[in-house]
Design brief:
This protein has 194 residues and is α/β, with parallel strands linked by helices. The chain contains 7 helices and 7 strands. The protein has a 7-stranded mixed β-sheet with strand order 1-7-6-2-5-3-4, with helices on both faces.
Length: 194
């Protein structure tokens, strides 16, 4: 049994005691490839997302996190892997595709970084590239922190929406770059509307 399957249920129990509420978990496909895409406002978001989604998530994260000895070890033990942002990291894209070809679930924060203000940033094109190549359904997730500061009850809400399927998107541009940007923007719009 992997550390993920042991630790996540414990964290899930703990954060629910603290008032975290999840809506729409039934929207996550029970099997097959799946991309779970969420907004990013806090370092704790991967933990909340892992606890909200009823499948094992393989997270893609920025490379600098993996260079910290303890953090890097923990992330790798939990199935996360690094990406070099802004460099067209081919090995990270291949890893994403292998996860999805294996009918597993990829966890991604399309903005590529945390929002300093809590407002959503524009998505990077990577989500568009991965979605286009894999044709996997994209499950939008919105994480909302109701209060800042010390832990309080009902602080976090996680809203999980119905999957976005690429064939549902009308007017996809012909140009490859514009098409990926369009997909990325559509994903963030779905997240914002939750």
């Amino acid at each position: 049994m992997t550390p993920y399957r042991i630790v996540v249920p414990i964290i899930r129990f703990y954060i629910r005691l603290l008032g975290c509420r999840v809506e729409g978990a039934e929207n996550v496909p029970k099997e097959g490839p799946c991309i779970v895409a969420a907004n990013h406002i806090n370092y704790s978001d991967p933990f909340f997302l892992a606890c909200a989604v009823p499948r094992v998530l393989h997270f893609i994260g920025k490379e600098s996190l993996f260079k910290k000895p303890v953090m890097g070890w923990v992330l790798r033990k939990f199935g996360a892997f690094p990406v070099s942002r802004g460099e067209g990291d081919i090995s990270a894209i291949r890893r994403c595709m292998a996860i999805l070809k294996g009918n597993e679930t990829l966890g991604i924060f399309p903005e590529g970084t945390r929002s300093a203000t809590g407002e959503m940033n524009q998505a990077l094109d990577g989500i568009g590239l991965i979605a286009e190549r894999s044709r996997a359904p994209i499950v939008p997730v919105r994480i909302v922190k109701l209060k800042k500061g010390k832990w309080t009850r009902h602080k976090t809400r996680i809203h999980i929406g119905p999957p976005l399927l690429l064939h549902e998107l009308a007017d996809l541009p012909e140009d490859k770059r514009l098409r990926r940007k369009f997909i990325a923007t559509s994903v963030m719009e779905r997240i914002a509307n939750l």
